[in-house]
Amino acid sequence: MSLGQWLARLMSSLQDPQNVARFQQLCGVEAPASCPAAAAADPREDEKAEAHLAGESRRRERQPGASGGPPPPGSDRNQCPAKRGDGGAPNGVRNGRATEVGPASPRRAGLLRRNSLTGEEGQLAHVSNWPLHYLFCFGTELGNELFYILFFPFWIWNLDALVGRRLVVIWVLVMYLGQCTKDIIRWPRPASPPVVKLEVFYNSEYSMPSTHAMSGTAIPISMILLTYGRWQYPLTYGLILIPCWCSLVCISRIYMGMHSILDVIAGFLYTILILVIFYPFVDVIDNFNQTHRYAPLIIIGLHLALGIFSFTLDTWSTSRGDTAEILGSGAGIACGSHFTYKMGLLLDPPLDILPLARHSISMTLFGKAILRIFIGMLFVLVVRDIMKRITIPLACKIFSIPCDDVRKARQHMEVELPYRYITYGMVGFSITFLVPYIFFFIGIS
After folding, report:
1. Which of the residues 52, 126, 133, 259 is marked catalytic?
2. Which of 68, 157, 210, 222 has its Cα between 20 and 30 A from that of 344?
3. In percent, how much of the chain has pLDDT > 90?
């Protein structure tokens, strides 16, 4: 057997959904007895069906409109394909949901979010190991919006603004490349059955590579790279944090039934490659964002250009909105850091006092940190809600799209993309400029 044949066989084995199903069973997750197809289904037949459906999707994608440009707002390209009668996903994964409850009364596992755009929910399942289940729920949340909207502001407001800004630069780059790569490779999610889909929030996106695995690799590694030598702490802490964080996020995606083993490994290796190539330029990018005279115009223009490129790669799915959200957040945080620097609100400590010593936690320090988080997050959530209420009706009016049902309106590209980009751009701008200005004004900066 040649090396190429051996690698092909290895990749096929790592991508096999049966391995995901076996891991779920090992962790105490099983499909209800009322779904015998989950045990009897032939994965080869699933793969053939998925390949056929994916091919049909690509053929529809290549059919140009009458003028060769983007299809009109009412066309299939501007609709979320996951909103189909059979509840399927655009990547060809058959994601039927159990409707009959067996004698054992299976319950929908966990408190995971339903997909607000497609209405999909996780499958009914028997879960026998609840501590492990909640551990993996926590691991998968380390790659979701709730974590990001708490984690990055906490760094910027309470710990180290410089580290927080540069973590965002790395996160935006890694997530953007991951999302674009998904839409170029176009591999489907693991077939269900045999896999039990405990989470479906990202089920309408493609699978390879796992962007959760990429984020779960990039953030802990970047944290150690950015803080070791800048702060005084033993390197052992970092060497423990990185594998624990990374493995928890990666394994949780297999447990949830959202990725194959190959997707997770590829996401990990892809992130290491990105960090090796781009990490040396993070300081240059951050300094440019803060000091260059025309940085805000260049930042907004660059992020818009990246978005326009990525949105032409594939038919519409929820990944388009996620990409717009990532780019908008990155642009807002970078622009906010520029104005913060110009006004002297968050000054980085001089290099001659490095490394920084860890502060002893006092009641005053702890109280200010809690107050900053409470006031800051309240302001950010208000900004997000206001911008959502403004941008969605405005986009609907501009593109003549009915906005009686917000969920249906957001399934149109012309509504979802401006809403995500503008709203989360303002959220990012608030995190690095408006909120620090409030802290300065009330004396808790």
Report:
1. 259
2. 222
3. 31
Amino acid at 43: P
Question: Could you give the CA distance from residue 51 to residue 57 in angstroms, rounded to a whole number?
Answer: 10
Write down the pTM of the prediction.
0.77
pLDDT score at 42 = 43
> Cα separations (Å) of 200 from 14, 34, 112, 203?
21, 21, 9, 5
Mean pLDDT of 149-154: 92
> Among this protein's residues, is 259 annotated catalytic?
yes
Calpha distance 432→293 (Å, rounded): 18
pLDDT category at 373 given cuts 50, 70, 90 is: very high
Using CA atoms, how far apart are residues 16 and 10, in angstroms rounded to an integer? 10
For residue 377, what are its two tokens?
Answer: 């997050």
Q: Dihedral through CA 359, CA 141, CA 327, CA 115, nearest 10?
A: -150
Eight-class DSSP state of 280: G
Helices (H), 186-294: 211-227, 235-255, 261-278, 282-291
List 133, 212, 303, 412, catalytic entry = 212
- Strands of the sheet with 107-108, listed across from one edge: 29-30, 124-127, 107-108
Per-residue confidence band for 318, with pLDDT thresholds at 50, 70 and 90 = low
By CB atoms closer than 10 A (0-12, 13-18, 19+), residue 354 is: exposed
Neighbours of 53 (CB within 10 A): 18
* pLDDT(350) > 80: no
Q: Tell me the mean pLDDT in the region 286-308.
A: 89
Residue 153 binned pLDDT confidence (cut-offs 50, 70, 90): very high
Active site residue 52: no
Residue 33: what pLDDT?
Answer: 63
**Separation of alpha carbons 195 and 255, rounded Å:** 9
Who's near 247: CB < 8 A, 6+ residues apart?
none
* C-beta neighbour count of 195 within 10 angstroms: 30
**Token pair 């519409």 in the structure block, residue:** 316
